[in-house]
Amino acid sequence: MQRKRVLPLATLLLCAPALAGTVPAAAAPRAATTPGPAGPLRILLTNDDGYNAPGIRLAFARLTAAGYDVTIVAPLTNQSGAGTKTTNTPSVTVRHPEPKVWAVDGTPGDSVAFGLSEVFEGRAPDLVVSGTNFGPNVAGLATHSGTVGGAVAGLDAGVPAIALSTGGVTAPDPVTTVNAMGPTLDFAVKLIDRLRSRARSGPLLPKGIGLNVNHPVVGADGKGTAAGVAATFQDPQPLLKADFTDAGDGTWKVGVKVDLRTPARGGDVEAVSAGKIAVSPMNADWNAGPADSVLTGALIAGLRP
Fold first, then answer.
1. Residue 201 — φ and ψ, nearest 5°?
2. Quick one: which of 164, 128, 113 has its CA closest to 45?
3. Is residue 162 within 8 Å of 204, Cβ to Cβ?
4. Which CA distances in Å does 174 have to 81, 82, 166, 239?
5. Is the dihedral of CA 229, 156, 148, 262 positive or negative?
6. What is the C-alpha to C-alpha distance for residues 267 and 280, in angstroms, rounded to an integer?
7. Alpha helices in the chain (DSSP H)
8. Contact (Cβ atoms closer than 8 angstroms) between residue 30 and residue 193
9. Residue 54 maps to a domain
10. What's the total number of domains in the chain?
């Protein structure tokens, strides 16, 4: 899927000036911003790793410290790889283990749907933030990501959304990846503040547009500063390759390995591989761009039922 590549030029122009020259810094003080929505920015925070995962808990602490009004509505259990799936069941188990935290026994999409319908009933949040994820969501990983799926659920409902992920293009190391979540969230605060400043009293992002943010792991301990920020698109490569081995009893063992190909120029894989933060605009539907629509018209020209 290449939907990020074909978004309107205006969207890319929105992202590039907002991020140009932005340099992540650890624990940088929050800059004053032009007032946006009345009162603290209200954020629905979700993920696909589960409501008690390190990434979402660190995000809750950092975003709250930045002055935002944050409420976690996230899956009860790990839902990595759930994509945009929503559960079709007559009931769902929901726990409310502590103030500002809701755990939904379902997917990220289920969690966001419950949050918008019940937790934020009558007044939608200003922003859905999904993550930060343990590991990257670039290239084909983004297509199947529950983290991205949580953000898409927000976009489907008309709420601006950002997906946050931390990791390089190799298998994530637990210690360095968790350490890199600090710089990821410091950048997220800067990004959200920038969006709020630009939006003034309006929506944080254009209608139907979200951002998929991937922060690399920098330095031996993961706490290093990224080399820069790049406005990117989703690289079309799958990134992972599945392998199946016949166990001889009617079952097959499943293996997965990284299959990194030459990164597309200007794509998210190229940026993250270079130690940069990749920020890709995304939408919530599966429409291709105008050129692909013209091509499709040519392919079916003259066909009859």
1. -100, 5
2. 128
3. no
4. 18, 21, 11, 20
5. negative
6. 8
7. 9-19, 54-65, 108-114, 139-144, 146-156, 174-199, 268-273, 290-300
8. yes
9. yes
10. 1
Report the residue count for the chain.
Answer: 305
Residue 243 Ramachandran class (φ > 0 left, ψ -120 to 50 alpha, else beta): beta
Q: pTM score, two decimals?
A: 0.86
Q: In what order do the strands lie in the sheet with 277-283?
A: 94-98, 101-104, 69-75, 42-46, 127-134, 161-166, 209-215, 277-283, 229-231
Domain that includes residue 165, residue range? 9-235+261-300
How far apart, in Å, are the Cα atoms of 105 and each of 19, 74, 111, 185, 264? 36, 9, 8, 26, 38
The residues, any chain, with a CB within 8 Å of residue 77's CB and separated by 6 or more, are 50, 105
- Single-letter amino acid, residue 258: V
| Amino acid identity at 13 | L
Query: Residue 183: inside a domain, yes or no?
Result: yes
Specify the CATH number for the domain of residue 189: 3.40.1210.10
In a domain, 231, yes or no: yes
Token pair belonging to 44: 């629905």
Q: Tens place of pLDDT for every residue, the chain, 305 residues?
A: 344 433 443 333 344 444 444 433 333 333 333 344 568 999 999 999 999 999 999 999 999 999 999 999 999 999 999 999 898 889 999 999 999 999 999 999 999 999 999 999 999 999 999 999 999 999 999 999 999 999 999 999 999 999 999 999 988 899 999 999 999 999 999 999 999 999 888 899 999 999 999 999 999 999 999 999 999 999 999 999 999 999 999 999 999 888 999 999 999 999 999 999 999 999 988 777 778 888 889 988 998 89
**Is 245 a member of any domain?**
no
Closest CA to 19 of 245, 223, 192, 164: 192
232: Cα separation from own chain's centroid = 14
Report the C-alpha gap between 82 and 79 in whole angstroms: 6
Nearest to 75 by CA among 100, 98, 45: 45
